[in-house]
Amino acid sequence: MLSLRIASRFNETVVIATDAYVLGKLTSAIPSQPFKLSNMKLQENLNELADPGFNRPASIDVILGSDVFLTLLNGSQVEDECGLTVALRTIFGWIIAGRYNAADSIHSSCAIVSLHTEVDLNNTLRLFGEQEELHRKPKLTSSETKVKEHFNSTLTRNVNGRFIVRLPFDNSKPPLGESLTVAMKRLKSIQKRFES
Questions:
Q1: 30-69 exposure pattern, b = at least 16 Cβ within 10 A, e = fewer
Q2: Predicted TM-score (pTM) above 0.70
Q3: Cα(169)–Cα(90) distance, rounded to whole angstroms?
Q4: What does the alpha-carbon distance between residue 93 and residue 95 come to, in Å, rounded to a whole number?
Q5: Could you report the per-residue pLDDT of 5-53, keeping only the tens digit for each?
Q6: Which of these, 93, 61, 94, 88, lies nearest to 75 by C-alpha position?
């Protein structure tokens, strides 16, 4: 990573500082083929284009993130009459974005699909999706719902500040029956054995 300072070609006192990664190649040439400006009325009234050769294929030097890009905008915007392109005023001059009419293309060619990706980009998007995902509460089973209701209905706090909750009992099970008398007899017999 390196620190990058970008200045306007019209005003060298306007400088943007940012950090950047150095890559061997960012993308293929953009646009993929040259196009004529003769039918593009939009750029006729704009002076100080940030890239006067925007209609000719060229390599991409820098890709700016939205945090930097949004600071470049000056708020002026002009759309062409067809709605295909828009010009945005930036501190570097006017930039033109959008689509161009395929009929204005200088070379006819087949459709070319180009995909540019980075392994870190996939991981970053996955992490972004996980952070932005709404955390849904898991659905509770009927017994879990009953336990939660029991907890909420029996929760109290004593004078010492301790929380008290009654133990939940499952009343759907059959009762144990009359086992107290049998248990007492066994306890007494064990006590007699220890005494002797």
A1: eeebbbebeebebbeeeeebbeeebbeeeeeeeeeeeebe
A2: no
A3: 70
A4: 7
A5: 888 888 888 888 888 877 777 778 888 788 777 666 666 677 888 888 8
A6: 88
Q: What is d(CA 61, CA 30) in angstroms, rounded to the nearest whole number? A: 11
Please say whether the beta carbons of 65 and 121 come within 8 A: no
The amino acid sitting at 178 is: E
Residues 91 and 69: beta-carbon distance below 8 Å: no
> Residues, the chain, total?
196
SS3 content of the chain, % helix, strand, coil (to 5): 30, 20, 50
Phi, psi of 24 (to 5 degrees): -65, -45
Residue 79 sits at φ, ψ, to 5 deg, of: -105, 150
Q: Is the dihedral of CA 70, 72, 76, 78 positive or negative?
A: negative
CA dist 154 and 156 (Å) reads 6
| Distance between CA atoms of residues 48 and 10, nearest Å | 8
Question: Which residues are CB-neighbours of 27 under 8 A, at least 6 positions away?
Answer: 60, 63, 114, 116
The structure tokens listed for 34 are 């040259």
